[in-house]
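Backbone-to-sequence.
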């Protein structure tokens, strides 16, 4: 209906233009002044702008019921409108074909399809563990903003890994506030929508039963050989570059709660200090819940930069010592060091002795280069 109307309207307008041009040819040529040309062009622009804002049905009609003559620009606009209306069904059909094509591309094919279906089956087999992992965020005042941001990234990693784990644990954040909460509010506003996590501003001692708590600290003499899923294991949320040694063990002793360390030394030998980030400890426990093998869990999670090798295989392998900065500098990723990790105390006395010896040798070399009294040295 609309297309037929536009077609008839265009035909009538074309006839009117042709008739006006024919009549104009019989009349003598009349020259227009620049002012008249300017006013005529202005009038044409005004008519064009009006037609762009109104519907075609609102055109001015003369007394005979025919539309008044319009400019060529308006005629072209009507032609484009007609063409658009005629191709409406064609555009609709192309949209449908494009939608079907995208749907077919998303369908799994071959090996990719097998992998996708396997992933779906794995997700259906998820069994939630009764074990609880708690990140203690009560060390906020001991960290600068840079380290707080690193801890935030480690917590994000823990949350993501727990969501995709085969045996996800009950995840707790306690003593949540201060710089950490402010940084999360500013840079990760979506954390308020996290699922399967308990974010508490209270201390863990006020959230969970005291007899169920076990603080994971490398300074503990107790080794965690078996994971008791009825317990709540606490990971110290502290990125301190080993500045506060033994603080987590001290906290556990002050509160009178159980403490233990991961059996890292029983299975792994590393070239660098045995320092693990918060997310590494978290992921190792998730891996153990799936594999039930500490050794396999350690070597699945530990980063290559640690240079980890199984205990008993270190003989014959050259030790590659890394610069101290590489070990202690946490960096910007989730591999940053924290007090929570498994640590080996540095022998500061030996380091001081080496530094003193280097200074002494340097002074001796400088003295030997000076000329002797009474003339040149021979």
């Amino acid at each position: 209906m609309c297309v037929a109307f536009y077609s008839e309207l265009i035909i009538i307008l074309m006839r009117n233009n042709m008739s006006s041009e024919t009549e104009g040819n019989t009349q003598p040529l009349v020259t227009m002044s620049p002012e008249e040309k300017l006013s005529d062009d202005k009038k044409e622009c005004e008519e064009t702008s009006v037609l762009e804002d109104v519907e075609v049905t609102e055109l001015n009609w003369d007394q005979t019921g025919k539309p008044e003559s319009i400019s060529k620009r308006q005629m072209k606009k009507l032609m484009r409108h007609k063409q658009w209306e005629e191709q409406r069904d064609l555009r609709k059909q192309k949209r449908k074909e494009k939608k079907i094509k995208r749907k077919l591309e998303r369908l799994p094919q071959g090996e990719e399809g097998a992998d996708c279906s396997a992933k779906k089956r794995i997700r259906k087999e998820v069994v939630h563990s009764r074990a609880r992992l708690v990140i203690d965020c009560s060390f906020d005042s001991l960290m600068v903003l840079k380290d707080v941001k690193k801890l935030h990234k480690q917590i994000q990693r823990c949350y993501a890994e727990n969501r995709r784990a085969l045996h996800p644990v009950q995840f707790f954040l306690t003593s949540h506030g201060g710089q950490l909460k402010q940084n999360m509010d500013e840079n990760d506003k979506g954390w308020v929508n996290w699922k399967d996590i308990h974010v508490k501003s209270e201390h863990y001692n006020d959230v969970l039963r005291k007899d169920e708590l076990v603080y994971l600290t490398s300074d503990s003499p107790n080794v965690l050989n078996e994971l008791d899923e009825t317990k709540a294991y606490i990971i110290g949320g502290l990125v301190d570059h080993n500045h506060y040694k033994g603080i987590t063990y001290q906290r556990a002793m002050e509160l009178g709660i159980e403490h233990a360390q991961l059996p890292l030394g029983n299975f792994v030998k590393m070239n660098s200090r045995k320092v693990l980030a918060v997310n590494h400890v978290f992921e190792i426990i998730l891996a153990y819940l799936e594999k039930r093998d500490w050794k396999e869990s350690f070597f699945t999670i530990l980063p290559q930069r640690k240079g980890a090798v199984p205990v008993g295989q270190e003989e014959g392998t050259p030790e590659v010592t890394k610069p101290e900065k590489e070990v202690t500098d946490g960096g910007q990723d989730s591999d940053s060091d924290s007090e929570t990790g498994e640590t080996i105390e540095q022998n500061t006395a030996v380091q001081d002795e080496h530094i003193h010896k280097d200074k002494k040798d340097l002074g001796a070399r400088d003295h030997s280069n000076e000329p002797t009294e009474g003339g040149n040295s021979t």
